[in-house]
Every structure is written in C-alpha cells, then in structure tokens.
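Hello,

Following up on my earlier ticket. Below are the two sequence lines again, exactly as submitted.
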Amino acid sequence: MGYSVAPLERLVDQFERLPGIGRKTAQRLAYYVLSQPADYAAGFANALKEAKEKVHNCSVCYNFTDSDVCPICSDVKRDRSTICVVESPKDVAAFERTREYNGLYHVLHGLISPIDGVGPDQLYIKELLHRLSGDGVKEVIMATNPTTEGEATAMYIGRLLKPLGVKVTRLAYGIPVGGNLEFADEVTLYRALQGRSEL
Amino acid sequence: MGYSVAPLERLVDQFERLPGIGRKTAQRLAYYVLSQPADYAAGFANALKEAKEKVHNCSVCYNFTDSDVCPICSDVKRDRSTICVVESPKDVAAFERTREYNGLYHVLHGLISPIDGVGPDQLYIKELLHRLSGDGVKEVIMATNPTTEGEATAMYIGRLLKPLGVKVTRLAYGIPVGGNLEFADEVTLYRALQGRSEL
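Thanks for your patience. The regenerated structure is below:
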C-alpha cells in the first residue's frame, strides 16, 4: 500500500539536509514548492546554483564575495589598521549590521576543535599572519564566539600574534556566555566591540 | 558601509519565500548551502527543477504523481467503491501513513473560500462528479479539515452528491488520540459525546 513520488521524495530529502529542518517541515516545504508557479522552482534552483558558483572567498579576508577582493577589503574609507577575526562569513554580516565597525575582517572558516579533528592548519590562520607581516596593522580583535572552541582559538591566535608586536584584543562579554554571535542584537554587538579588552 | 553579495542575497530571498521561514532562518540556510560541497547546491537545484517538471496531477484523482495515473488509482488491489475527498496532496500522504485506508482519493486542491475569492469552479469538483457518473462508487468520504472553509466545502459537495444516490460521509469529530479532555474545546467535546460508540 506504499505510495511515494520519486522526484517529490528527492526534493523532500534535499530540504531535510538543511540544518534545523526535520522530515515534516521538509515535506511541507516541498509541497509548497509544487503548489507554486513553475518559475518559482526554476528561480530557486537558479539562485542555488548561481550562489554556489559565483560566491567564493575574498582573496584577502576570506569573507564570501562575488568579486576577487570583497567590497570591504577594497573600500578605501575603511580603517586598515584594525582586523576583526571571526569564525564565519555570517559573523561579518552580523558586525556589518551594527554599522559601528569600520575596520577590516579576517574569516577563519571554522574554529580549532580537536574533537571534530579541526586543527589550526585547516583554518585561515597562516593567511592572517601573512596579512600582518605586510601593512600597518595595529590591532587584531579576536571576535570568535564565546564558546570553548571560540575561546581556545582566540587564545591560540593571540599567542601567535603577541611576538609580532600587534595589539590583540578580545570582544567584551557583552555577549551572553554560551550564546551565538549570529543571534546577538546590534546593541549587544556594539557594546561588545566598545568593551573589548587586551588578551 | 553597506555590504552584500548579490547572488547570496538572491538565495536568501528564495529561502525567505518558503512558508514559516523568516529572514534570519533564510540567511542561516543560505550560508549553510555555501558551506557545503558544490554538489549539494547542484543536487538541490536539480531536485527542485525535476520535482516541478515531473510531478503533476494524476488525471483521475488529481493527487501529485510522476506518471499519468498515480500508483493509488492504478492499484488493482484498492477498493474502487470508496473515494476519500481531501483538500491537498499532503492529506493523501497523511491518510496513506495510517495504512488503514484502502479506497481511492480525490484531491480538490483547495477549499471554497469566498474571502480568498475561491469558488467551487476553481476546485476539482466537476471532475469528482464525472468520476461518480461512471464506475460503481458507493461511498464518498468528505475528509476536509474541520475548519469553516473545510465544513462549507464538505456541505457544498455533499449537497451536490446526494441526488446521485451515493452515500456521503464525514470524518468523525472527537478528542485526538493521546490528547487530554482538559484541553479539548467545548465544541469538540460535544461532538465527541454525540459521536460516542458502543464499547
């Protein structure tokens, strides 16, 4: 008495792979797509492929961009003496929404996590050191999440940078401990920036 | 100081159009897609297009299928004398999961709703009448949701079918299994009392 439509099931499977989407929600979303005009599915499919094809890492800060150097790194009005180090491109977007930070960024694309087998070599740490060797960077703000991995990564990079004579600071605990940068409101993020302290 | 990556924003927009997905969740999902290997985005895009291209309405019951007549309508082991009328293909999937119903279905693809400008002509009601004119259908179960629109649609179709000499039934109202009397509303409790059966 089984009943299933293979192309529909394949679409449900794809939705279910998304974080936070369970089987029932995936089914609801797939049925919604089928209930819409054909140009919606086509547009969605196109947006998925285009985003993955055109968006890559900035060759300077490793943030997502569709140009070689991202608009932040190529913006002459930004303060090139400060680099804010974050875990992921999401975090750059979060800081940009505060409209209070005018320096540059460096995206690690992960955190040091021995449990998950992620060591310093898998992150863009060498690239950060390379950036510091050249231009006049005066301060590096460690803006990783206030979690165990975030703290450990901040400490590790802090220790690497100290001998280079650059000031290394850490976001203030304006962010609730155990929380996530992505969900912090603008004011909290701004306070965290203001209250940053030296590592 | 604005910062946005156009292809990424377009993907966020597409996710945000899905029901129950807000801006922040849409961003999280889009960033997730970008963090995955390229074949994920390609596979997802393909599943979207393929589902919309290959899945269409069954020419008999109007349920979703990728063949001309759906597997349920073409299954010779199913009871052809009973038709269960539902609002949407989702409801067919729900009944099939019970593994207790062995008749056929008819999907209306909506409910009569004057407020939303949906009249009987926009639903597959004529097609239901056409099915009854031919083969030996003995019973039609009105299985629309117990909402105002669902009730009105069931009443409307019931009145159309009565003169054809076919038995028209309605799903039982009652307390959900595993539910609690304390939280049942008065109307549901009253209906549960009315529909009581001998143990």
